[in-house]
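User: structure tokens for this one?
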Amino acid sequence: MKRRTLGILLVGSLVAATAAMAIPVTPDPARDSSTGTIQAGWSHTSRSNGYVEDTWWAVRDRCAPDYLGERLICDAVAVLARATSRTFEAKISDETGLPLPDGWDLMTAKNSPSIRSAHAETPLDLASVLGFYRVALGDRGWTETDGAMLAPDRAYIAFTTADGPALLRLTRQRDKTIADISQRKPTAVLASFPPKPGQVKLMLGNKTDDAAIIAVNEQTIKLAAHAGEKLANSDSEAGELPDSQKIDLPPGKYKVTLKVDGRAARSREFEVAANETWGLLVGPEGAALAIRLY
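Assistant:
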């Protein structure tokens, strides 16, 4: 009798699980978000003259299930990955000295002789991200200067720090907030990075195993697999980039479209200011990895 009861319970459980897998669910962006699983990369360059340069990037996988059973699996993965995610965030914040907002989907960071920078994209609203940075940067001894520009869809705040001036720029794009922190260092300028005066330099690369196409400002650049993937690692790597993978732009907002072979094209806005240099790399799943280089 006990064996029969156990068998009935087992069969019932399997039937329930199978049924759950087949129950459709309504997409819920607030709930069906990142799983906490992270794809990340890190580069470290050091030389005998004391030159040290570190570059980080990470993309957090997302889960948007169509069925109840898939949602339950997503929830389980998120619980298991959350502790690893917190450890990763703490390490990046410690290494760069720049905090990351909670729930980010994509981040990049740079620490070189010429700049310290971090780029983060999060579904949190702009007001929440601004509040986070004001507290986190204040705790690090940063002081806001006069003249901050605050609007519902953007914010620009300059800071004074023990290491020199710094800038926080926030913009709201569709369903996410883009956060950029930068602090230039008072060192000799590296030859490969500075843009033309009043312009923006965009350096393009592809970190994937497939060919890709980047379209920006009515220019289309075809990239072979892994073409220029190390451009953000060091000045020497950037210097080896062919001119065909460099674009000079006026400051402003641009639509950028990335297309990796075998995948649907992905488009986004990319806002840049005068006298900045950025690396734009095609990353996992065709994600645009924007790295402030100068």
